[in-house]
TrEMBL record, chain A:
This is Glycine betaine transport system permease protein opuAB. The chain crosses the membrane at residues 43-64, 71-90, 96-119, 140-167, 220-239, 251-268. The lineage of its organism: Bacteria, Bacillati, Bacillota, Bacilli, Lactobacillales. Residues 93-272 form the ABC transmembrane type-1 domain. Its main location: membrane.
Amino acid sequence: MTNIPQLPISSWIDKLVDWLASFEGFFNGVTNFIGGIINGFQWIFDLLPIWLFMLLVVGGTYWLTRKTKHWTLIIFEIVGLLYIWNQGFWRDMTQTLTLVLTSSLIALVVGVPLGIWMGKSKVFETINKPILDFMQTMPAFVYLIPAVAFFGIGMVPGVIASVIFAMPPTIRMTNLGIRQVPADLIEAADSYGSTSWQKLFKVQLPLAKSTLMAGVNQSMMLSLSMVVIASMIGAMGLGNKVYFAVGRNDAGGGFAAGLAIVILAIILDRITQAINRNKIPKS
Amino acid sequence: MTTKLQVRHLTKIFGRRIPRAEELLKAGKSKAEILKSAGATVGVNDANFEVNNGEIFVIMGLSGSGKSTMIRMINRLIEPTSGEILIDGENLTSLNKKQLLDVRRNKMSMVFQNFALFPNRTIIENTAYGLEVKGVDKDERLKKSHEALELVGLHGYDDQYPTQLSGGMQQRVGLARALANNSEILLMDEAFSALDPLNRKDMQDELLDLQENLKKTIVFISHDLNEALRIGDRIMIMKDGEIVQTGTPEEILTQPADEYVEKFIEDVDRTKVLTASNVMIRPTFINIDKDGPRIAMRRMVENEISSVYVVNNKREFVGVVDASHVMGLIKKKERKLDSVIQTNVPTASPDTPITDIMEKISSTPIPFAVVDDKNHLLGIIIRGAVLGAISGNEVVEND
Ligand SMILES: Nc1ncnc2c1ncn2[C@@H]1O[C@H](COP(=O)(O)OP(=O)(O)OP(=O)(O)O)[C@@H](O)[C@H]1O
Ligand SMILES: [Mg+2]
């Protein structure tokens, strides 16, 4: 064993990171772009009075679940949001929400086209599957290092790390959704002379929609699970509160903030699921 | 009758080692041998046939015989390995992508076994799909789709979703979707196979009714011989990717090309397709204008029969005389037969289906006379021949 030289994996990766860091302009551009999205979300949330925010959430839920009348969820939302406000976590919550929404949005915008590509190309699917496994199983902490190297500290590298960690389900489920479209529907679309785009937008995506949305929901939950980790590189929000509580050995404060994250997670989860509910009646 | 669709030397091989498989195919190896030695599946092998304008052309064969592969090569959902497909003389195999889209949009429409309706679209949106991808504007689209739904007898379901409809209704939508496009060729792959027997029969009737006015060229796949015989103008039978026989329903039934076809038609209810002309035999007859009782008697003795048919100089059917009456005339030294001719003989035209006269055949002692529209005697139907034909053992030749 001792004769075999150790492979210089770490020095290779270091070199790669150094080399990538030379594209400073590119990374600045990305930073500005993502920073713009973050500021946009945050600006809206800061503008909204708390009562209006709550009204929007509750009203939205009411409308989305108008057929099933999900009263327990609505009550949970009211109580949960009041708790967050009562604990003085309101701005932290909106910061966390901003982080999650930004990462989910990027995961959606980047992940769905990749998923579609995988769904349509066997080769691309074969190449990508191991990469996705890798992205998801690599400990999330590791993503912090290059994120900091390229994007400094703050919300933006937090978003980047979250996106890398959280995007695979969106890609996977989009791919799955596209592939699950029954073969005879594809044949029907083809036989009537659909172009690839027509087939995609009129048949494949609409039929993949609920699977795809389940992927988006998973991505959102994963990015929420990143908020504490992201706070280590300066991302603000509830994660930051938990992180500091850990540092100060403050069990009570940590639990209070952690509970706020759970509440946010449940609300986001249920709302995205409600959006996903199929409007096509089942036989 | 003009040719709408022509298929020439069409071959499809599935798998990797296609050149090798083609060689083996040329060397006359069987489908099974090729699968074993080249690992390639022969879907269709050197198919040649023509479909005429306005006919219903049924393709039959056991599972795996290549029917679906064949019909999917016609609109190139499956790319042929070699060979040509011509529609109105235009070769489809050499079309580029854009031209192929045009052909699919305007020349042919497909109806699928499991309906293949889009579950995310309402009935009217499903029906309008072909028009939508063609870029027809919305008003026009709706108008044509309504007309098509009307044709198949569906109204009031516009805004329902496919899962809300029964199987029979769903396939009506499938048919309407094809009709809305107004293409001249319909490709129907086991379109009625998923329906229960009663619904299936309704749909067959409906297709035949529609066809009377629309005069589409229809390629219809079926594994149900009764269905094929009912709706097909011609039937093509396939086995292991090859065409075994092509012919009218009658030809298939009366002159099966080989054992495979014979097996196929074994369990058909033959009474449904056999007509009087299929089972009639050559009659023994005399000419009333020149023959007398003695000639009549001689004919009966020669042929060992107890009655003889009577025609006049123009070969028009007059009636029948039987042996005992003729004997009486001979004893009385009569010269003329007129007094003993029975004219109440049951008659049928050559295309009368056997089912229609079956009961009478078995209840009247006198064989039916088959006469054409000018009352010429063509043949007679005796009970034994009918039973023989129905059981498929012996179909009596006639000319
Ligand atoms: N995509 C494919 N890849 C490989 N082999 C195929 C493919 N499609 C069909 N085959 C093979 O080609 C042959 C013909 O199949 P096809 O589906 O045309 O038969 P069929 O007559 O329509 O049968 P069925 O009555 O079951 O629908 C079969 O041996 C089948 O296994
Ligand atoms: Mg088939």
